[in-house]
UniProtKB/TrEMBL annotation:
<dbReference type="GO" id="GO:0016887">
    <property type="term" value="F:ATP hydrolysis activity"/>
</dbReference>
<feature type="compositionally biased region" description="Pro residues">
    <location>
        <begin position="912"/>
        <end position="922"/>
    </location>
</feature>
<dbReference type="InterPro" id="IPR056599">
    <property type="entry name" value="AAA_lid_fung"/>
</dbReference>
<feature type="compositionally biased region" description="Polar residues">
    <location>
        <begin position="1020"/>
        <end position="1036"/>
    </location>
</feature>
<feature type="compositionally biased region" description="Low complexity">
    <location>
        <begin position="879"/>
        <end position="892"/>
    </location>
</feature>
<dbReference type="Pfam" id="PF22942">
    <property type="entry name" value="DUF7025"/>
</dbReference>
<dbReference type="InterPro" id="IPR027417">
    <property type="entry name" value="P-loop_NTPase"/>
</dbReference>
<protein>
    <recommendedName>
        <fullName>AAA+ ATPase domain-containing protein</fullName>
    </recommendedName>
</protein>
<feature type="compositionally biased region" description="Acidic residues">
    <location>
        <begin position="863"/>
        <end position="875"/>
    </location>
</feature>
<dbReference type="InterPro" id="IPR054289">
    <property type="entry name" value="DUF7025"/>
</dbReference>
<dbReference type="GO" id="GO:0005524">
    <property type="term" value="F:ATP binding"/>
</dbReference>
<dbReference type="Pfam" id="PF00004">
    <property type="entry name" value="AAA"/>
</dbReference>
<dbReference type="InterPro" id="IPR003593">
    <property type="entry name" value="AAA+_ATPase"/>
</dbReference>
<feature type="domain" description="AAA+ ATPase">
    <location>
        <begin position="611"/>
        <end position="739"/>
    </location>
</feature>
<feature type="compositionally biased region" description="Polar residues">
    <location>
        <begin position="1"/>
        <end position="13"/>
    </location>
</feature>
<feature type="region of interest" description="Disordered">
    <location>
        <begin position="861"/>
        <end position="925"/>
    </location>
</feature>
<dbReference type="Pfam" id="PF23232">
    <property type="entry name" value="AAA_lid_13"/>
</dbReference>
């Protein structure tokens, strides 16, 4: 039997209902359409019917009572003679949704009602505790009571009933004021008739609220981590109060950030992860309750092709509970709030508070410790702002405090080339904290701060239609509809605005006009982010780092110039010019602060020029040029701003100029000592064929004239510098090759530094410190220098530092070998000998490839002359007794290096040294029965036990090579790998040749160098560079020389 079809007009209305409910979802329109269907079906009478039904009827009289109702009796009245209570409470359990759907189906035509009933699937009914019931809504029907509410809130509420939905923000927010109003009414001497009714109804309401509404609120507000409880979704508002500290787990930030990135920047999903830089402590600004009518509304009916038992999340989706929180940040001028909205999705039944996406801090594990740790990091943040110049060892932060990925600056600030790939970087060394400049340079880094406006006017009262009507029926069978009233529901917007206004008055960080420049105090410190932006000098860019990894600069111990190996006149000149420049800068600032109209005068004719201090240092690598700039920065307590000029190379001169402008601006703004290392690209001589190079140099010369800070330029190619540079530079210093005193001093400095490092490591980790055999290492330094005539091949400052790193590693490796357990590692000269051997092999290889050493190559290319010692040194060298300024060997030998090597002058038991030095005595290596006229000069002869006759003071004899000859050997260089059957070592003569002497053989009298029997490898007495006493296979009286041969 076919089902009867609805009338055509009804069918069209049903289709219209479906379209509206599915597309718009507006509940008030849904109710109007349902009412229209009821009218068309004959279930309702029109408001203009003859029975006088009217929604705008006068206020009805009520009795001061509270009536509990289920949903059917809350929106229906079945006895017209029953008195109307001043307060009605909707009491229901978890099946309220089913009750609402059932009532809707009774009011709608059957074909609609069936679908409405099926709209609430069983899966959405919370079965646990289904017998428990609580108050879902409260309706105030007393006109006198509504008038009292109007006086307390400042709004005209009228006389029609108003319904308040759980969690009752109005009733709780104004409760104390309502109690005050009751006391005022009760104290009135002659209360009016209306006042008497108001007193009775208000007493009834206050009693009801304190017995049945406030206990739930108080119970949840007073709960702590120790007695935390489960909470219903409708009671979440009780949990959060404006001004509360809230805890946002990292997983919540990650989830919300993932949802946002999916919508806007899907390519950044890979960067999202739980991070230690997430802001976990926030402060609540306001909690936003879902739409007030939501708990009482009817879900939209399903479409014809949908299963009523399925809920795909699109139809009738419950609105989430939202809370607006903020943390604090600094924009370079003031501290302000950064807001973020979080949501808690609707859930059925009850949930543990710590299972919520966000919850009050008091429910977190160890909330006091968590708050204290956040305050400590906040204090580090505020302390770093005024310090500006700090040390940092930290990975960059790849997420912002809210969990969103950070797009790191790909190109360094003064770099020209293509931007590097993003990702985390490690920041190590000195940094500058300047957030104002950070955000000016990288606006993408800045999170928008809150800028709310305080509204002083009264907020309009906010109500809306409930979507249903309260109907008066003639009887419980709904035989006749007498009248209906549209129910009005109070929303929470008014209370939310009041709460926001209160916070705006209390918290200065929320408004731009009231943001404080002074750092936060107390619990506000906990709201500061752990992320702070720094300018990393080594990476030359602004980067976000963890503020907990910032440290103040270590206090200087002593004079930074004390460890700098420079001639005293150099130190004096540099310090004097720097001190004078800084004093002049202070005076200029004082003049500018007075805002005087006259220009600040300098010795330059053009205003603005000549205010800087420009110093150029030139010389071979590793002689202290960069260390000088570092010492100036440390002594003046200013940051060192190093620039690698290679970063600025580009065909576009305009881009280079902009990059230089940025570097000069930042260095001047931060009072830095600017160091342009290896600035040869900007200093090169100009020529007619190099137009691009000419443009670079001309532009750089112009910039130099207007720079007002301290600038150090270094160059290894002074011979290629443009002649115009000298007139722009205030001070040009030549750094000569390191001498023996400087070498010894640098070794001593490295020993002290290594001892301090070992002490710190021992205190931090308990690691056994190295035992440094200082005398052996100091002797090695002297021996190392004296083995290299004229200082060629001697380690420079950087090489000595590297040698200490490698030698210390070798010492620790030896101590870790089997059989060495429990022994303290020792750093001895033997470890440096190993490093020296490797260095020598590299130098020999490089010499062979280049056909000479680096100094020779630099001179041939007209870049520099490393052998230049100055006029004073030449005069002292010529005045030395017996010295030959340019000794020439017999036999017509010409050095392939273009310069005749100088043979050192030897005396018995004295090590050769620079001509201006006093002789340094050395221990003789033949200690028993030595010939009175001979000695072993260990510093020159090396480690093979070679005997050297004192050199004549008048002329240099011809040296004859005996045995195989090897090339590419430095004069005086020793090898420990002679051909088979020859002496254990050999000495290169002044021509670069090598003399080999067979074991036990004599070369005849008059030879300058012979070798006899020496201890063989593996003998107990054998020691490199030492002939034992008594020597192996020699008489106890030792050995002596007869006709150039070592004999017993």
């Amino acid at each position: 039997m076919s089902q009867a079809q609805p009338p055509k007009d009804n069918a069209s209305s049903v289709e219209e209902l479906k379209a509206v409910s599915s597309k718009l979802g507006h509940l008030d329109r849904l109710e109007r359409l349902l009412t229209d269907l009821e009218l068309r079906a004959g279930l309702l009478r029109s408001p203009d019917a003859s029975d006088g039904e009217d929604d705008e009827e006068d206020a009805q009289k009520t009795v001061s009572k509270v009536k509990d109702c289920d949903w059917e009796h809350f929106i229906n009245r079945f006895d017209p003679t029953e008195p109307v209570c001043s307060i009605e409470a909707l009491v229901a359990g978890t099946k309220l949704r089913q009750d609402i759907a059932a009532e809707a189906s009774k009011r709608a035509p059957k074909h609609i009602g069936t679908k409405l009933t099926a709209r609430v699937p069983l899966s959405r009914v919370h079965r646990l505790g289904s017998n428990s019931k609580w108050i879902h809504a409260v309706r105030i029907q007393s006109a006198p009571l509504l008038a009292v509410f109007g006086r307390v809130t400042g709004y005209d509420w009228g006389t029609q009933p108003h319904t308040f939905v759980r969690p009752f923000p109005d009733l709780i927010y104004y409760h104390e004021k309502l109690k005050d109003e009751l006391r005022n009414l009760e104290c009135s001497e002659k209360p009016a008739r209306d006042s008497q009714a108001a007193i009775q109804d208000l007493r009834c309401y206050i009693d009801f609220a304190e017995r049945r509404l406030l206990p739930d609120y108080t119970r949840i507000r007073e709960a702590t981590e120790l007695n935390r409880l489960r909470v219903r979704f409708s009671d979440l508002w009780y949990l959060f109060k404006p001004g509360d500290m809230v805890y946002v787990p990292s997983k919540t930030l990650l989830r919300f950030a993932t949802e946002e990135v999916k919508r806007e920047r899907a390519q950044m999903l890979a960067q999202l992860r739980e991070s230690p830089w997430h802001q976990r402590v926030w402060r609540l600004l306001v909690a936003k309750i879902p739409s007030a009518e939501a708990p009482l509304r009817l879900p939209a009916p399903p479409r014809d092709n949908e299963n009523p038992e399925e809920d795909d999340g699109r139809r009738g989706k419950e609105l989430p509970f939202r809370i607006v929180c903020y943390y604090l940040d600094y924009d370079g001028k003031a501290y302000g709030a950064v807001e973020r909205s979080f949501r808690i999705e609707h859930y059925e039944g009850e949930k543990d508070i710590r299972e919520l996406e966000v919850y009050p801090l008091r429910f977190a594990d160890d909330p006091e410790d968590l708050l204290q740790a956040a305050k400590e990091s906040g204090r580090l943040f505020t302390d770093a702002i005024p310090l500006k110049h700090m040390m940092c060892e930290s990975w960059t932060c790849d997420t912002d405090p809210s969990g969103f990925p950070v797009q790191l600056q790909g190109r360094n600030l003064i770099g020209i080339g293509p931007p590097r790939a993003g990702g985390t970087e490690y920041v190590e060394g000195e940094v500058i904290i300047d957030l104002k400049e950070t955000y000016n340079t990288n606006p993408i880094y800045q999170n928008a701060m809150a800028n709310r406006h305080l509204i002083e006017d009264a907020y309009p009262s906010s109500t809306l239609n409930s979507g249903y009507r309260v109907i008066m029926w003639s009887d419980s069978r709904r035989s006749k509809r007498i009248k209906s009233i549209q129910d009005s529901i109070r929303t929470s917007e008014e209370i939310e605005e009041h709460q926001i206004a209160t916070e705006l008055k209390r918290v200065p960080y929320l408004r731009a006009s009231t943001r404080p420049q002074q750092p936060p105090q107390g619990d506000d410190l906990a709201l500061l982010t752990v992320r702070i932006f720094v300018y990393a000098f080594r990476l030359r860019k602004f980067l976000p780092v963890d503020v907990r990894n910032l440290k103040p600069l270590a206090a200087e111990r002593g004079d930074p110039f004390e460890d700098l190996q420079l001639p005293e006149n150099y130190k004096k000149m540099i310090q004097a010019t720097v001190e004078t420049h800084l004093k002049r800068q202070d005076i200029q600032r004082q003049i500018q602060s007075r805002r005087e109209t006259e220009d600040i005068l300098t010795q330059d004719f053009i205003a603005g020029k000549g205010r800087g201090l420009l110093v150029m240092l030139h010389g071979e690598p590793g002689v202290g040029k960069t260390a000088t700039a570092e010492a100036i920065a440390r002594s003046t307590k200013r940051p060192l701003f190093p620039i690698s000029c290679n970063d600025l190379i580009t065909p576009n001169v305009g881009a280079v100029e902009l990059a230089l402008d940025d570097a000069f601006r930042l260095a001047h703004m931060w009072d830095c000592v600017l160091l342009m290392d290896e600035a040869d690209v900007f200093l090169a001589s100009r020529s007619t064929s190099m137009i691009h190079q000419n443009s670079l140099v001309s532009m750089f010369l112009r910039k130099l004239e207007y720079y007002s800070g301290i600038l150090f330029l270094t160059s290894n190619r002074i011979g290629k510098v443009d002649q115009a540079i000298s007139s722009r530079i205030h001070l040009i210093l030549h750094y000569k090759r390191l001498g023996l005193p400087a070498i010894v001093k640098i070794f001593d400095i490295n020993i002290r530094n290594l001892e301090e490092v070992e002490r710190q490591h021992h205190e931090a980790s308990g690691q056994t410190p190295l035992y440094i055999v200082r005398p052996d290492i100091e002797q090695f330094a002297i021996d190392h220098y004296n083995k290299h005539p004229n200082g060629k091949g001697v380690w420079n400052g950087r090489q000595i530092r590297n040698a200490f790193l490698v030698a210390a590693s070798l010492a620790r490796h030896e101590a870790s070998q089997p059989g060495m357990e429990g022994r303290q590692p020792q750093l001895r000269d033997t470890h440096f000998h190993e490093v020296e051997r490797l260095t020598r092999e590299y130098n020999q290889f490089r010499f062979r490839v280049l056909g000479g050493d680096d100094s020779r190559k630099a001179k041939l290319l007209e870049e520099r002359d490393d052998d230049y010692e100055g006029e004073e040194d030449k005069e002292n060298d010529s005045a030395r007794p017996g010295a030959s300024p340019s000794p020439t060997p017999t036999g017509g030998y010409q050095s392939p290096h273009g310069r005749v090597p100088q043979r050192p002058q030897h005396t018995v038991g004295v090590a050769p040294g620079p001509p201006q030095w006093s002789p340094v005595p050395t221990a003789p290596r033949i200690q028993v029965g030595v010939h009175p006229d001979w000695a072993i000069n260990h510093a020159q002869a090396g480690y093979a036990g070679t005997v050297i006759r004192p050199a004549p003071q008048t002329q240099s004899p011809s040296w004859q090579a005996v045995g195989p000859v090897s090339s590419n050997i430095y004069p005086g260089q020793i090898s420990n790998q002679p051909p088979p059957g020859y002496a254990n070592g050999y000495l290169g003569d002044r021509t670069g040749q090598v003399t080999f002497v067979p074991l036990g053989a004599g070369a005849g009298a008059g030879q300058d160098m012979q070798a006899g029997k020496v201890p063989g490898p593996g003998t107990p007495e054998s020691q490199v560079g030492h002939i034992s006493s008594p020597p192996h296979s020699f008489a106890s009286t030792g050995g002596h020389v007869v006709n150039g041969e070592v004999r017993t």
